[in-house]
Amino acid sequence: MSKKAAVLGVLAAAIAVAYGGSTWWAGSQVKSRYDTAFDELPKQTALVRVVERNYDRGFLGAVSTVTLEIGCAPDATAAAQKPAAGEEADKDADEEPEEEADAAPAKPLRFTIRDTIHHGPLAGGTLAAATIDSELVLDAKTQADAKKLFGEAKPLSAHTKVAFSGAFTSDLTVAPAKLAEEGKGHPSSTPTALSA
What DSSP string describes 9-63? Predict the structure, then answer.
């Protein structure tokens, strides 16, 4: 083996190790920031609650699925965390006056977001700590309703680029909606994009 081939082999191995290490590091940083953000969310507002969280990390990327509730009453979180008292709780619920039952707060809005994360340093073909493609996860009934409005397009999606410094930019896209009934006109909207 020539000296030139040996040097090229060592150089290629060093690049592979450096890329692998930086990908692992970027993935660790993104997961840490994700965990911190969702752990802090209930402390920042009582109106949003994290119901379920799942983070499946791989080497080159991860998939995060988060279910949120919006519109939670400040004491709803505390009430939800109290253990049920068994049959006594059922008897007490049956004996409540109708006025209190009518005054029950509205059911909070629950939705799920799926983030597909690409770890850096070449995340999604760009130089970044990560890129994140986010979309709403809809149940079958909601998906059928959304299809009437948005056709095959995803109703809401976002693309986020996370810099190595932790700064990020996000592009949020709302699909165009068709608001007319069949045969009664053709009003529609144009795609809307927001950047932050």
Answer: HHHHHHHHHHHHHHHHHHHHHHHHHHHHHHHHHHHH-SSEEEEEEEEEE-SSEEE
Residues of the chain with pLDDT under 50: 76-94, 97, 101
* 160 and 131 Cβ atoms separated by less than 8 Å: yes
Query: How far apart are alpha carbons 89 and 152 in whole angstroms?
Result: 46
Q: Could you please report the per-residue DSSP string of 86-135?
A: THHHHHHHHTS-HHHHHTPPPPPEEEEEEEEEEESSEETTEESSEEEEEE
Token readout for 148 is 């009437």
Question: Which pLDDT tens digit goes with each residue over 39-63?
Answer: 888 888 888 888 899 989 888 888 9
